[in-house]
Structures
1.
Amino acid sequence: MTAEPAPEATCVVCTTPVAADARRCPSCGLARPAARGRGVLARGGFAAVAALLLVVWVVTLVVVATAR
Ligand SMILES: [Zn+2]
């Protein structure tokens, strides 16, 4: 076991070792640098993208239905 804590993750932008719970990358300032995959789009981003796609789909459906 080493005395200093090993970095658990790296920044997705600059690959600087950061803590898993770091809020910002100390090198490039990226918010939540250790959150790759999970947590990045899981909360608000994914819902926003899904809602946007749903709106686009509905609008397209309406346009196609009314065009005939
Ligand atoms: Zn970084």
2.
Amino acid sequence: MKINKILISIFFICLSVSSTHANRMPPREAILACEGKSMQETCQFQDRKGILSGVCNDKPGIMSCAPNRGKQTFKEKLRPPKQNSYTNSKASSQSSSTQTKYSKSISGSNKFKLEVWVDNWFSAYAEDQLIIEDSVSITTERSFNSESVTFESDYPLHLNFVLKDFKQNDTGLEYIGKHNQQIGDGGFIMQVTDMNSNKVIAVSNKNMKCMVVHKAPLNKSCKNSSSPQAGMSPCEYKTTDEPIDWKKSNFDDSSWKNAYEHSKRSVRPKGGYDNINWSSNAKLIWSKDLELDNTVLCRIRIENPKEKINTTYLSSNSKSEVSSVFNYFHSNNVHVSESDQYIQVSSDGIPSGELMVGIKSWQQQVPLPQNYSGDNAWLLTKNPQPSSKNLSLSSNFYMGAVGLAVDGIPIFNPLNNRGDDAYLVGELDHMGGHSGRADDYHYHTAPTHLNSIVGNDKPIAFILDGYALYGFYEPNGEKVDYSTLDKNKGHRHDGIGYHYHASVEYPYINQSMYGKVKISLDSRGNTNFISPQPKTKPLRKSLEPLRGAEITGFTVNDEKTKFSLTYKLKGKGYTLYYQLTNDTWKFTIPNHDGTNRVESYKAVKNNKFVHSHSH
Ligand SMILES: [Zn+2]
Ligand SMILES: [Zn+2]
């Protein structure tokens, strides 16, 4: 009997084992993960231990996601179905909370939490390592779940997102053939928390760079079509290949557009959106066209916030951050490169806009292209350091530049070398600039006109101590509270780090240097200047003021070889022309008696000698 009992138990054990085998089905999550995919396509799903990556196959008799790791067996005991809000049942979506998953697919020394809501599907990568793929298939209509995942990685963190709005096919439509056939619209919001500090360190906003890779339909009237056919009028679509290596940290995204911030009203976030406690800085973004742009790639680089302490926005001065603001000016030949210590900015010294116009006290100097490149480029320190000296601009730096505007034009002391306010004495044009002795154009006030190009949330210049100069607004859109500025005319708030602000009245830029600068004495010992900085060399001898003249017009051709400058003198109009042919600048200069004189100068090749600024 005893033996029989044992045999029976063995039999039952065998039976139970084999029946387990017979019934072994992949978990529902693994099946969902391969919905709409083909054999051997990569997939990902979550089990009790975390996120598993694998490939789709139909071994168990149903297409499902088989994890890559060795002899992974599916857990018998499945988690209760995740309370995702993608179901059409509103009740379940509202009561559910988003459970935080753990992604094992990558590793690093910092722990992060990524929270995402997207209409309608996304995948997220740290560089090219998959962190998470939306657990609800793209083929699920009305998928408004949010996702929360923790993962390990290192700073700087490069996150890449593939964002897809639901579309039934390449027409870009959803509910095809139903009464509510329509063009779907997208929407995406995310935030990243550093789990050590428990602080949100990055959010979705217009600083992210995005590229549209699927746009449909190109013609909105497609949605009224009774039998919409993708690719057939009016339902044409446009697809663009994903750039190779777009997920790599060194990918050059300077040609990508900034993400577009959409209002809550236009995105109408729902479902799992409310399960996440969003930072007020996290914005709903997409490309500009919420409806027609169906698949969008977006990138963000996240610096170590600890390294940002004592530095500005950009004065952790990584190339991608700094170039993001100089990049608006590629057409002015402004380009950025990087060395160990410095961000190097090259420029031809000729900005866009109505330069010179409005000058009432004119020294007869004109804007000539300058060779601010190579070893004569502008240098911004990558590691600005506060100084105990705070050198004042009212007693220092009467020579040379004190800052560099983001359009590649130097900013000089608001006081000219006689100690006069250059703006008040009428020496400046409407942009706050004029040309110096080397016919080098420069500003003497804050170039706040650049805010209309870069936006109010970005610096318009960097002072040569490495700290950023913003305009009349704070990055959050509020007007500057000038009572919060220190004696240098800067302050620190909202995690942006130390920065200066422009003012309408003197000193227009910073009053003194918050940060350390290296100084050199001018040869006569009268003043000092900040070094290193590019040098300029006069082409012609410096000129006398032309009393009573007012500059009324300025033109330049695209190649910056042909210029004209129009002015009024004693009620009459005159035009000075200058142009470059074969390394020679030819000036045609009015004599103010009805005749002109022509002067020719060999173009300057090396800007080695003189620090130009003197009036
Ligand atoms: Zn000047
Ligand atoms: Zn501020």
